[in-house]
Amino acid sequence: MEPLMAPPANPPLLLPFRKSGGGERTVKKLRLSKALTIPEGTTVSDACRRMAARRVDAVLLTDSNGLLSGIVTDKDISARVIAEGLRPEQTIVSKIMTRNPIFVNSDSSALEALQKMIQGKFRHLPVVESGEVIALLDITKCLYDAISRLEKAAEQGSAIAAAVEGVERQMGGNFSGPY
């Protein structure tokens, strides 16, 4: 049996976020969703109603100054409220939230955002500017963007290969080399 190899330092999945010209694609270039934000004192029951109305699976919590203080996801509600037998109409979201969540700003690279979500093993990442929540980035949007960019790169690669073949036919030679 062959020994297992460590994954590459830069998995191919992360490469589509690089723009030509050396710069990196930023978070603000992704399809950001306006975050559902609620005060820390909201009940879980009310948070669930608001999440259902907006068709979202995460809510960001703000303190009395309107600054990001936590996040609650559908998984938090199922694991920390329902599974524990707590009553949603009596449980305050601040009791079950993940406090001081990791976040990025809109000028952060998309690669950095995706790496934070993968390393932290979470699906949602708040986007903050000057302490104020401006959006919520979902890992599925990062992955959709990566797949879309990979498909475009594959199409461009196919077009280049076809062009090289056309030149080879016209020139009557084989330019593919000994590689």
Automatic annotation (TrEMBL):
SUPFAM superfamilies: CBS-domain pair
PROSITE patterns recorded: CBS (PS51371)
Keywords: CBS domain, Repeat
UniProt entry tagged with the keyword Repeat: yes
Domain CBS intervals: 31-89, 97-152
Signal peptide: none
Pfam families: CBS
InterPro entries referenced in this protein's UniProt entry, alphabetically: CBS_dom (IPR000644), CBS_dom_sf (IPR046342), CBS_domain-containing (IPR051462)
Coiled-coil stretches: none
Keyword Repeat: yes
Entry-linked SMART domains: CBS
Protein name (Swiss-Prot/TrEMBL): CBS domain-containing protein
Organism of derivation: Malus baccata
Lineage of origin: Eukaryota, Viridiplantae, Streptophyta, Embryophyta, Tracheophyta
